[in-house]
Amino acid sequence: GQQVMQIPQYQHVQEGEDFTTYCNSSTTLSNIQWYKQRPGGHPVFLIQLVKSGEVKKQKRLTFQFGEAKKNSSLHITATQTTDVGTYFCAGTGNQFYFGTGTSLTVIP
Amino acid sequence: DAGITQSPRHKVTETGTPVTLRCHQTENHRYMYWYRQDPGHGLRLIHYSYGVKDTDKGEVSDGYSVSRSKTEDFLLTLESATSSQTSVYFCAISGGGGGTGELFFGEGSRLTVL
After folding, report:
1. Of A31, A41, A101, the CB nearest to B42
2. A73/A65 Cα distance (integer angstroms)
Protein backbone atom coordinates (compact mmCIF):
# COMPACT_ATOMS: atom_id res chain seq x y z
CA GLY A 1 0.00 0.00 0.00
CA GLN A 2 0.91 3.62 -0.20
CA GLN A 3 3.41 4.73 2.42
CA VAL A 4 4.29 8.21 3.57
CA MET A 5 7.41 8.53 5.67
CA GLN A 6 8.21 11.57 7.72
CA ILE A 7 11.47 12.63 9.35
CA PRO A 8 12.62 13.42 11.89
CA GLN A 9 10.31 11.79 14.43
CA TYR A 10 11.34 14.26 17.12
CA GLN A 11 13.02 17.66 17.05
CA HIS A 12 14.07 19.87 19.93
CA VAL A 13 15.05 23.43 19.09
CA GLN A 14 15.89 26.56 21.00
CA GLU A 15 13.34 29.30 20.59
CA GLY A 16 14.35 31.40 17.62
CA GLU A 17 16.00 28.54 15.72
CA ASP A 18 14.59 27.22 12.48
CA PHE A 19 12.87 23.86 12.06
CA THR A 20 12.22 21.62 9.07
CA THR A 21 10.29 18.40 8.69
CA TYR A 22 10.36 16.24 5.57
CA CYS A 23 7.77 13.98 4.06
CA ASN A 24 8.49 11.28 1.45
CA SER A 25 6.10 9.05 -0.42
CA SER A 26 6.76 5.79 -2.20
CA THR A 27 4.34 6.81 -4.94
CA THR A 28 3.33 9.99 -6.73
CA LEU A 29 0.79 11.99 -4.79
CA SER A 30 -2.17 13.92 -6.14
CA ASN A 31 -1.91 16.53 -3.40
CA ILE A 32 -0.24 16.88 -0.05
CA GLN A 33 -1.68 18.40 3.06
CA TRP A 34 -0.11 19.47 6.34
CA TYR A 35 -1.70 19.32 9.76
CA LYS A 36 -0.65 20.48 13.22
CA GLN A 37 -1.64 18.76 16.42
CA ARG A 38 -1.07 20.54 19.70
CA PRO A 39 -0.32 18.33 22.73
CA GLY A 40 -3.56 16.73 23.88
CA GLY A 41 -5.43 18.13 20.91
CA HIS A 42 -6.64 17.03 17.54
CA PRO A 43 -5.02 17.57 14.13
CA VAL A 44 -5.83 20.88 12.49
CA PHE A 45 -5.45 21.54 8.79
CA LEU A 46 -2.70 23.97 7.81
CA ILE A 47 -2.43 23.89 4.04
CA GLN A 48 -2.77 21.90 0.84
CA LEU A 49 -0.26 21.80 -2.02
CA VAL A 50 -1.38 20.63 -5.43
CA LYS A 51 1.11 21.60 -8.11
CA SER A 52 4.52 20.14 -8.78
CA GLY A 53 7.21 22.40 -7.28
CA GLU A 54 4.63 24.51 -5.46
CA VAL A 55 5.77 26.73 -2.60
CA LYS A 56 3.37 28.39 -0.18
CA LYS A 57 4.00 30.58 2.82
CA GLN A 58 2.00 31.27 5.92
CA LYS A 59 3.82 33.89 7.98
CA ARG A 60 6.88 32.00 9.35
CA LEU A 61 5.86 28.67 7.77
CA THR A 62 7.02 27.68 4.29
CA PHE A 63 5.62 24.62 2.57
CA GLN A 64 7.12 22.98 -0.51
CA PHE A 65 5.91 20.22 -2.82
CA GLY A 66 8.58 18.38 -4.76
CA GLU A 67 8.88 18.44 -8.52
CA ALA A 68 8.05 14.73 -8.76
CA LYS A 69 5.16 15.12 -6.28
CA LYS A 70 6.70 12.48 -4.06
CA ASN A 71 8.07 14.65 -1.30
CA SER A 72 7.28 17.76 0.67
CA SER A 73 8.72 19.86 3.44
CA LEU A 74 7.58 22.27 6.10
CA HIS A 75 10.04 24.89 7.30
CA ILE A 76 9.43 27.15 10.28
CA THR A 77 11.61 30.23 10.60
CA ALA A 78 12.50 31.52 14.05
CA THR A 79 10.43 29.09 16.08
CA GLN A 80 8.25 30.29 18.93
CA THR A 81 6.81 28.38 21.87
CA THR A 82 3.44 28.51 20.16
CA ASP A 83 4.86 26.26 17.42
CA VAL A 84 5.05 23.30 19.81
CA GLY A 85 3.16 20.27 18.59
CA THR A 86 3.25 17.44 16.13
CA TYR A 87 3.25 18.19 12.42
CA PHE A 88 1.79 15.65 10.04
CA CYS A 89 1.86 15.47 6.31
CA ALA A 90 -0.92 13.65 4.53
CA GLY A 91 -0.44 12.47 1.00
CA THR A 92 -3.57 12.10 -1.01
CA GLY A 93 -4.08 9.48 -3.65
CA ASN A 94 -7.53 8.00 -3.48
CA GLN A 95 -7.46 8.56 0.25
CA PHE A 96 -5.48 10.41 2.89
CA TYR A 97 -2.23 8.71 3.90
CA PHE A 98 -0.68 10.28 6.94
CA GLY A 99 2.99 10.39 7.75
CA THR A 100 4.17 9.36 11.21
CA GLY A 101 4.54 12.97 12.29
CA THR A 102 7.33 15.13 13.67
CA SER A 103 7.03 16.19 17.28
CA LEU A 104 8.48 19.66 17.79
CA THR A 105 9.62 20.88 21.17
CA VAL A 106 10.66 24.51 21.50
CA ILE A 107 12.92 25.34 24.42
CA PRO A 108 12.43 28.91 25.68
CA ASP B 1 -14.28 24.59 14.55
CA ALA B 2 -16.33 22.23 12.43
CA GLY B 3 -19.32 20.68 14.16
CA ILE B 4 -18.00 17.26 15.05
CA THR B 5 -18.55 15.54 18.34
CA GLN B 6 -17.22 12.18 19.45
CA SER B 7 -18.58 10.08 22.26
CA PRO B 8 -17.51 8.81 24.61
CA ARG B 9 -14.37 10.90 25.02
CA HIS B 10 -12.84 8.39 27.40
CA LYS B 11 -13.61 4.74 27.96
CA VAL B 12 -12.01 1.92 29.88
CA THR B 13 -13.19 -1.57 29.09
CA GLU B 14 -12.13 -5.17 29.44
CA THR B 15 -10.81 -7.54 26.82
CA GLY B 16 -13.57 -9.33 24.96
CA THR B 17 -16.28 -6.74 25.46
CA PRO B 18 -17.92 -4.90 22.55
CA VAL B 19 -17.36 -1.17 22.26
CA THR B 20 -19.04 1.42 20.07
CA LEU B 21 -17.69 4.89 19.42
CA ARG B 22 -19.92 7.51 17.92
CA CYS B 23 -19.09 10.38 15.63
CA HIS B 24 -21.73 13.04 15.02
CA GLN B 25 -21.43 15.93 12.57
CA THR B 26 -23.60 18.93 11.88
CA GLU B 27 -21.81 19.99 8.68
CA ASN B 28 -23.71 17.70 6.30
CA HIS B 29 -20.38 16.51 4.88
CA ARG B 30 -20.51 13.42 2.74
CA TYR B 31 -17.22 11.83 3.77
CA MET B 32 -16.46 10.56 7.26
CA TYR B 33 -13.40 8.72 8.53
CA TRP B 34 -12.21 6.84 11.57
CA TYR B 35 -8.51 6.96 12.42
CA ARG B 36 -6.51 5.57 15.28
CA GLN B 37 -3.44 7.30 16.62
CA ASP B 38 -0.62 5.43 18.29
CA PRO B 39 2.91 6.58 19.17
CA GLY B 40 5.27 6.06 16.26
CA HIS B 41 2.47 5.27 13.82
CA GLY B 42 0.85 8.58 13.19
CA LEU B 43 -2.76 8.44 12.07
CA ARG B 44 -3.93 5.22 10.50
CA LEU B 45 -7.21 4.89 8.65
CA ILE B 46 -9.58 2.24 9.99
CA HIS B 47 -12.72 2.71 7.90
CA TYR B 48 -14.33 5.49 5.95
CA SER B 49 -17.70 6.34 4.52
CA TYR B 50 -18.59 8.14 1.33
CA GLY B 51 -22.32 8.29 1.95
CA VAL B 52 -25.18 6.78 3.88
CA LYS B 53 -24.69 3.02 4.01
CA ASP B 54 -21.55 3.35 1.85
CA THR B 55 -18.41 2.37 3.69
CA ASP B 56 -15.03 0.92 2.91
CA LYS B 57 -12.01 -0.46 4.71
CA GLY B 58 -8.85 1.41 5.52
CA GLU B 59 -5.39 0.09 6.23
CA VAL B 60 -6.09 -1.25 9.75
CA SER B 61 -9.69 -2.46 9.57
CA ASP B 62 -9.31 -5.92 11.15
CA GLY B 63 -11.34 -6.16 14.36
CA TYR B 64 -13.44 -3.10 13.53
CA SER B 65 -16.78 -2.55 11.84
CA VAL B 66 -18.65 0.64 11.00
CA SER B 67 -22.12 1.76 10.17
CA ARG B 68 -23.61 4.91 8.73
CA SER B 69 -27.39 4.94 8.72
CA LYS B 70 -27.64 8.75 8.66
CA THR B 71 -25.48 11.43 7.10
CA GLU B 72 -24.62 12.87 10.48
CA ASP B 73 -23.61 9.72 12.35
CA PHE B 74 -20.73 7.32 11.80
CA LEU B 75 -20.33 4.52 14.32
CA LEU B 76 -17.18 2.51 14.95
CA THR B 77 -17.63 -0.86 16.66
CA LEU B 78 -15.04 -3.11 18.19
CA GLU B 79 -16.82 -6.46 18.23
CA SER B 80 -14.54 -7.94 20.89
CA ALA B 81 -12.02 -5.47 22.21
CA THR B 82 -8.38 -6.48 22.59
CA SER B 83 -5.50 -4.75 24.35
CA SER B 84 -3.95 -3.93 20.97
CA GLN B 85 -6.95 -1.71 20.32
CA THR B 86 -6.01 0.59 23.16
CA SER B 87 -5.57 3.85 21.32
CA VAL B 88 -6.87 7.32 20.66
CA TYR B 89 -9.56 7.27 18.00
CA PHE B 90 -10.27 10.29 15.84
CA CYS B 91 -13.24 10.86 13.62
CA ALA B 92 -12.79 13.20 10.68
CA ILE B 93 -15.08 14.66 8.06
CA SER B 94 -14.48 16.12 4.66
CA GLY B 95 -16.60 17.83 2.08
CA GLY B 96 -14.46 16.40 -0.71
CA GLY B 97 -13.65 12.74 -1.12
CA GLY B 98 -10.91 10.74 -2.75
CA GLY B 99 -8.29 12.59 -0.74
CA THR B 100 -9.48 16.04 -1.70
CA GLY B 101 -10.60 18.81 0.61
CA GLU B 102 -9.36 19.32 4.12
CA LEU B 103 -10.12 17.00 6.98
CA PHE B 104 -11.84 18.33 10.08
CA PHE B 105 -11.15 16.23 13.14
CA GLY B 106 -13.15 15.57 16.26
CA GLU B 107 -11.66 15.89 19.71
CA GLY B 108 -10.77 12.20 19.92
CA SER B 109 -11.90 9.24 22.00
CA ARG B 110 -9.34 7.64 24.28
CA LEU B 111 -10.00 3.91 24.66
CA THR B 112 -8.20 1.69 27.13
CA VAL B 113 -8.69 -2.06 26.92
CA LEU B 114 -7.55 -3.91 30.02
Report:
1. A101
2. 7
